[in-house]
Design goal:
Helices cover about 65% and strands about 5% of the residues. By secondary structure, it is α/β, with parallel strands linked by helices. The protein has 15 helices and 6 strands. Helix 8 packs antiparallel against helix 9. The C terminus is likely disordered. The protein has 2 domains: about 130 residues, no CATH class; about 230 residues, Up-down Bundle (Four Helix Bundle (Hemerythrin (Met), subunit A)), CATH 1.20.120.1760. A hairpin with a 2-residue loop joins strand 2 and strand 3.
């Protein structure tokens, strides 16, 4: 059991927002995670005159996970406490090198006399913040997400995380708003609405990554958030096809509208089957079960097939076809892919159900 004290050279550094969190709060979490022995108490020092902000206190308490955190205006003389350089801890915890000179012994306000040192340390934390946000991508990202959507969404996340009080839910609501605007444009906008709807669909696909990036950067991931994100994704996809079919149907192309409606029904049926399986297993609603199943096969061909059926590729391809003036082909292609996808879903769910029935140990795990 041990007590630790995290020392910052200046209050501005302790309060500096690193990827959406005060540096002091991020250091508290890193110190507790990396401690060799269970931590009983954590002290934070950033100068004799420092009064931590409410946000800093709240975030420190949240990230300490029940371990008491106190803010002190004087360094304890106890030799039993482990003293940690807060800025260096944050930087090294994300894999960067913490190379900055020390301008004075612990507890002295030498930093106030050396502006270059303060600038160096803040620049060091900015690099750490960029590294943290850069690591918020997912291994399962599709090819469009990896090379197009994710760089844009991470730039958005980097900006919004500078705003105090921002939460993943705000980005989720933004995605839902874009999806709603997209549907309205497609249904009521005619030819111009078709183009606007395509652009908004791609914008929603990009913004969809922001809520997860914020959650991972600020340690706010949750099963509820993941479920809400999946539901909004599915609703946006269905709304895009429905709106596109309605738009073309109102323009007189009933064949394309019928193809879209058929594909929509097939997609909805597949999503319903996946959702029912997740519910039966007591898991949050998540529509990635097919993707996860095929990724276990470690095949380059299978990986490409997964990429071509993921939402990011679907959104980009659909938007591109519409912008090229070939919206009806988008619906025909969608109906064909949806039919194949549904057959795959039924096959995978049937096979995984048989496996769970055959293996008693799996039944035990699944039942919990």
């Amino acid at each position: 059991m041990s007590e630790i004290i995290i020392v910052f050279r200046h209050s501005a550094i302790a309060e500096y927002r690193v990827a959406g969190l005060p540096a002091a709060a991020r250091a508290v979490r890193a110190a507790i995670e990396q401690a060799d022995h269970p931590v009983t108490r954590c002290l934070v020092f950033a100068g004799v005159d420092w009064m931590p902000s409410t946000e800093c206190q709240v975030e420190c308490a949240r990230l300490a996970a029940g371990i008491p955190v106190a803010f002190t205006g004087a360094l304890p003389v106890s030799t039993d406490m482990q003293t940690i350089d807060g800025e260096a801890l944050i930087v090294t915890s994300v894999g960067l090198s913490a190379s900055v000179r020390h301008t004075g012994p612990w507890g002295q306000r030498a930093i106030g006399q050396t502006g270059n040192d303060l600038s160096e340390r803040l620049a060091m934390l900015r690099r750490a913040g960029r590294t943290i946000i850069g690591a918020t991508g997912k291994p399962g990202d599709g090819i469009v997400s990896r090379y197009v959507n994710r760089p844009i969404s991470q730039s958005i996340s980097r900006f919004v995380l500078t705003i105090p009080g921002v939460r993943p839910l705000h980005a989720t609501i933004g995605t839902a708003a874009l999806g709603t605007a997209m549907a309205l444009c497609l249904v009521f906008g005619g030819a111009i609405g078709l183009v606007l709807g395509a652009i908004l669909f791609q914008a929603a696909s990009i913004l969809d990554g922001v809520d997860g990036e914020i959650a991972r950067a600020t340690f706010r991931t949750s099963a509820c958030g993941a479920m809400l994100d999946s539901i909004i994704d599915a609703a946006t996809n269905l709304s895009f096809i429905a709106g596109l079919a309605v738009n073309l149907g109102m323009a007189g192309d009933r064949t394309a509208a019928s193809a879209g409606a058929t594909g929509l029904l097939l997609l909805a049926l597949g999503l319903l089957l996946i959702g029912r399986r997740a519910k039966a297993l007591g898991q949050p609603v998540n529509f990635d079960v097919i993707k996860v199943h095929f990724r276990k096969r470690k095949s380059a061909v299978m990986e490409w097939l997964i990429w071509l059926t993921m939402r990011d590729f679907f959104a980009a391809a659909g938007a591109l076809l519409i912008l090229l003036g070939d919206a009806r082909q988008a619906l025909f292609a969608f109906a064909s892919v949806a039919a194949i996808w549904l057959m795959v879903v039924v096959n995978v769910l049937a096979r995984t159900r048989r496996a769970a029935t055959i293996l008693p140990s799996n039944r035990t795990v699944i039942g919990r």
